[in-house]
Amino acid sequence: MNFFKNKYIGYLVWRFILKNPRLRLTLQGWLYPHRTEFAQILGAGIFIDTQKELGYYRAARIVRSNIVTWQEAPKLLALMTQIRAGTTFVDCGANVGLWSAQVGRMSTIVPDLQVLAFEANPDTFVRLQRTCEALPGVRCFNVALSDAPRTLDMVGGAASGVFGIHQSEFQIAGAVQKIQAQPLDDFLGEDLSDLVLKVDVEGHELEVVKGAAKALARGAVRAILIDGILESSRTELLALLTGHGFRLYDCDSLAPHVGDGDRVLAIRG
Questions:
Q1: Mean pLDDT, to the nearest integer, of 67-80?
Q2: pTM, whole model, 2 decimals?
């Protein structure tokens, strides 16, 4: 049992330590080092005193210990800057819906916001549906995305997030499922004119973006966040994006994209 999660201990800490600033200051001095440093929280570096900003110091330690807080949250915040009234967010590789749920719940304050969530893994898709069933404006599709209609051999692993066509060290050789794939254009009607895409598809990024060729050609795609690009297709995909007038940024630091980094936020114009 976590000592501080016990409700009685929690009450005593709150009543006799947190509400006693002199005692709290003394205890912090005993328990935590006193220094100043940059702490990385949600993608931004903030300069802190490890005692006076103890909450931020502890949060930074927690952030580094988990892939969601360390990698997913900063990218999600970056993508949120592109959401506005009338946007359709297209979640390619939705998994259980972390991104779709965060964007979808904004529909109460962002007019005409829609979410299209695509997940290829039938097992994971069941949980995606449960995630999104109470969110207005969110539609879920159990289909893989590619550059043409086809059947893909997709490989699983110990975690649902590695499900894809690219055989990596995180996937289990032989754990193959045949999954039907369609181009993204098949789901993007001509009435959708403000599209924001997130692409996280374990090695099939180029084909997914090519499958939105019609939407790209008519200028309907305003931003694309690609969380990982297979090295063998990286040069071609980055050239495709710049050829359509996108400016490229590193989606972790938000600095202009240079070299061949595999995580990209592409913004048109």
A1: 90
A2: 0.86
